[in-house]
Design brief:
Length: 147
């Protein structure tokens, strides 16, 4: 299994993500899913009528992040590309803590490791995390949930 096949196999079992959004005009640096971002925009427009036109739904596309984003409202995982710094930070977490023990946690591990391995430079850490990621892949390449 090469790195592209491993990436695809991880993505197939990874926790679902929603597109990353943010609220233009709020400038608070928070990440949201679309539904929560829309609710925040509505709220801000209603409570800050003077600046209501400044608050807009923004995002909806992947962008580089220093960590894997989750929605500030509902906690959903959001899709993003890790920067090299972000990949190294998330890699350090896995090298120290290993994989989750729960099925749900392992789906999140697959999501994170897929992004880490897509952006981590070659080296000992990458080899260790690749071996770790391989243990997440079921032997037949499929899960009960399937895709
Ligand atoms: Zn949300």
């Amino acid at each position: 299994m090469d790195r592209y096949e491993l990436g695809a196999a991880l993505d197939a079992i990874a926790a679902p993500t929603k597109p990353l959004h943010w609220v233009g005009g709020a400038d608070d640096g928070r990440d949201w899913c679309r539904d929560c971002a829309r609710a925040v925009v509505r709220h801000l427009r209603r409570h800050d009528r003077k600046n209501r036109d400044d608050y807009v739904l923004d995002g909806g596309w992947r962008r580089e992040q220093d960590s894997m984003p989750t929605c500030s409202g509902c906690g959903a995982h959001l899709s993003a590309d890790l920067t090299r710094y972000g990949a190294e930070e998330e890699a350090a977490y896995y090298l120290e803590n290993g994989l989750s023990n729960t099925l749900e946690g392992r789906a999140v591990d697959a999501l994170y490791l897929s992004e880490i391995l897509a952006n981590l430079p070659d080296g000992e850490d990458r080899d260790t995390l690749t071996a770790m990621a391989m243990t997440l892949i079921p032997p037949d390449g499929k899960t009960e949930a399937g895709r």
